[in-house]
Specification:
The chain is an alpha+beta fold and 423 residues long. It contains twelve helices and 20 strands. The protein folds into two domains: 193 residues, Peroxisomal Thiolase, Chain A, domain 1 (3-Layer(aba) Sandwich); 159 residues, Thiolase/Chalcone synthase (Peroxisomal Thiolase, Chain A, domain 1, 3-Layer(aba) Sandwich), CATH 3.40.47.10.
């Protein structure tokens, strides 16, 4: 008789409001954002750290710099959260690692948590925290000189490069990210008019969600209603108080005529403009993931089952196509059809890229990115996969629906997707 397959469930999940470049979080390090997201996820999951052992912490971040010692990210965040909870024996000593899959990093934190919880009996765990954070406003200039052979502390002359922009161009394939969207959009027959109209829709949906608090859920104790994001009160490294409740990049005055005036970035008649591309952004997201049997035996309620994940590859020159094989592969892996899925989230790296994916997959517009996407909300790269999964979970609950799939294209020619089921 085969053993029962272990399942991973999401007990608590939260994401910060997303700040735009140079905005809310300009002087708030990514580590701090991770602390607030993890703390909120633990609170929402009502996790009693005196009774539940945290077996592992999986962190996600791309633009790690030396200034804030972010090579120690999972340990720094977990020990700081432990101190905020007065916990010295549990989260404080949980081992941690940092994972990276470019725009799919947020998904990868969930995939790692899933595998740690459902793996072989000898190594499996009961509770893993996944979080991802990014402050793109604080990415540095990098001196690219090499250490000299005869003096380890001296460097050769070299240019100073923008750390952020360096990641936007995959040199081996000459795939500047906006160019890949142009290529894919042209290949799938997308027009600039469609891109502008979709960008307006993204802002309209995000605006409506913020005004009407659609992406929220009822706490198990019934005392409050919360959105996927939470109100964040903090003090930045300049000593300035921050109080944030909504995504900063969402425009309340975005119109077709205004967006149509913006110049294409790659070529004069191109599809990608500042208004039809995702925003450079800052923010974090976190999820407490447990073995389902462990949660049930300990009377811990959960939001959703993490059904599975899938990563796939595409030609790097049409990187934006990544969600197509990722979603199809995940559906095949889970034995599901697209009609089994109630809600989809596809990261809006670029309007042309999203529209190409929507067209190839045959996604229903009225059930995809229903609360807006990265064009209006922002794309804080490492955290995006986790952010859109969390927002999707709360929207499924709000609608009393069951199955959701979140997906994103990934630089270098990849796609990632995760599936959740509300119980």
């Amino acid at each position: 008789m085969s053993k029962k397959q272990r399942e991973a469930v999401i007990v608590g999940a939260a994401r910060t409001p997303i700040g735009k470049h140079g905005g809310y979080y300009n002087a708030l390090p990514a580590e701090d954002l991770g602390v607030y997201a993890m703390e909120e996820a633990l609170k929402r999951g009502a996790v009693d750290l005196s009774k539940v052992r945290i077996d592992h912490v999986v962190a996600g971040m791309i633009y790690i710099d030396a200034r804030n010692q972010q090579i120690y990210l999972p340990r720094n965040v977990s020990t700081r959260v432990a101190a905020r909870f007065g916990d010295t024996d549990n989260l404080n000593v949980a081992p941690g690692k940092t994972t990276l899959r470019i725009c799919g990093t947020g998904f990868q934190t969930l995939a790692d948590a899933h595998d740690l919880l459902t793996g072989d009996e000898q190594h499996r765990m009961n509770c893993v925290i996944a979080f991802a954070t990014e402050n793109m406003s604080q990415t540095s200039l990098v001196h690219q000189g090499r250490r000299l052979k005869d003096d380890v502390w001296s460097f050769s002359d070299a240019p100073v490069r923008d750390y952020l922009l360096e990641g936007f161009n995959h040199y081996r394939f000459n795939t500047l990210m906006p160019r890949t969207a142009e290529e894919y959009g042209a290949q799938t027959g997308i027009t600039l008019d469609e891109c502008i109209r979709f960008s307006c829709l993204s802002h309209e949906r995000a605006r409506h969600a913020q005004m009407h608090q659609w992406n929220r859920y009822a706490e198990p104790n019934g005392n409050d209603h919360l959105r996927g994001s939470f109100a964040l009160d903090a003090v930045d490294e300049d000593g300035i108080a921050i109080s944030v409740w909504r995504d900063e990049g969402t425009r309340y005055d975005a119109t077709y005529d205004e967006l149509a005036k913006l110049r294409p970035l790659v070529k004069p008649d191109g599809l990608v403009t500042p208004g039809t591309a995702s925003q450079i952004s800052d923010g974090a997201a976190a999820a407490v993931v447990m073995d389902r049997d462990f949660a049930e035996k300990n009377g811990i309620p959960y939001l959703a089952i993490l059904r599975g994940y899938h990563f796939a590859t595409v030609d790097p020159r049409i990187m934006g196509q990544g969600p197509v094989p990722a979603v199809n592969g995940l559906l095949e892996k889970l034995g599901m059809k697209k009609t089994d899925v109630d809600l989809f989230e596809v990261n809006e790296a670029f309007a042309a890229q999203y529209l190409g994916v929507e067209k190839e997959l045959g996604l229903p517009r009225d059930a995809t990115n229903v609360n807006g996407g990265a064009i209006a909300i922002g794309h804080n790269i490492a955290a995006t996969g986790l952010r859109i999964t969390i927002d999707m979970i709360y929207e499924l609950i709000r609608r009393d629906q069951k199955i959701g799939i979140a997906s994103a294209c990934i630089g270098g020619g990849q796609g990632g997707a995760v599936c959740v089921e509300i119980v």
